Amino acid sequence: MANGIFVVDKPAGWTSQDVAAKLRGVFHERRVGHGGTLDPMATGVLPIFVGRATRAAQFLESADKEYIAGLRLGVVTDTQDICGNVLSQQEAHVTREALEAALAHFTGEIDQIPPMYSAVKIGGRKLYELARRGREVERPARRITIHALEVLDGADDLWTLRVHCSKGTYVRTLCHDIGALLGCGGCMESLRRTRAGAFDLSQAVTMDALLAYAQEHDPQELLMPVDALFAAHPACIVTLGQAARIRNGADVSDRSFASGLCRVYTETGEFLALARCEGGVLHTVKSFFEVK
Questions:
Q1: How many other C-beta atoms are found inside a 10 Å radius of the C-beta of residue 177?
Q2: Alpha carbon distance 171, 192 (integer Å)
């Protein structure tokens, strides 16, 4: 039975759901989920959770992400990216200094209004469903964090940006808002996710490479263990008796445990859970042991 995490370098034109559906067949496992939606035009890091590892997907959805984005100035579209219908267009000759000054307004905690072409629900309906019917509704702004926003290269009306942001950030809305602040309008020209939580492009495999590998090998060999998602947290080893308590859903007391989040393992190396230790008491946040 397949169980683990696989990082796809998502190809352009595929939705995250398309990738998950294809991998259900590759890994012969119906329990396949992804760690955060990428627009069809976007490429890059898309972690896929297989089997019991799907229990960990929620932790990646809330993790920070990093992108390389193309910013096209002078063009405004209904989808806020280059794939949409053009609403306005003008020449734009923006200097690097002017662009960097504008970016400073979007660094840190900011309020962002989600785009109409998004899966955000208002009144039980997804916004993109309303947008496709030509409707636009008022959307409350959401608090997001832009940890880093920098110019990599470009000139005049086409620039490349690096964006390190929190959960819930729409990079195409960011591009739209930057263009609006500059007075010329703007949209997202391209998008490549370079990092999602603990995973980056160095770990990603293209769909073509995966499908070719699966023709002659067991694709499960490519799966990373689920605890790879929590590599930033220290490991905590518990005794057989403590492991039994954790399997039964009970807390474990031991003053030798350090405070904070940790990965819990048995003495034989089995990953049991992500847990939080407070005052020498280990509380399970999420269990990952196989139920026998």
A1: 19
A2: 11
Question: Do 160 and 69 form a contact (C-beta atoms < 8 A)?
Answer: yes
Pairing of strands 158-165, 186-196: unpaired
Quote the percentage of the chain above a pLDDT of 90. Answer: 75
| Catalytic entry in 9, 39, 157, 177 | 39
User: Average pLDDT for residues 190-199, to the nearest whole number?
Assistant: 95
Instruction: Give the rounded distance of the alpha carbon of 8 from its chain centre.
Output: 12
200 catalytically annotated: no
* pLDDT at residue 1, rounded to an integer: 67
Q: How far apart are CA 16 and CA 137, in angstroms?
A: 26
Q: Which residue has the tokens 């989040």?
A: 261
Question: For every residue of 174-197, which 3-state class applies, written as one string?
Answer: HHHHHHHHHCCCEEEEEEEEEEEC
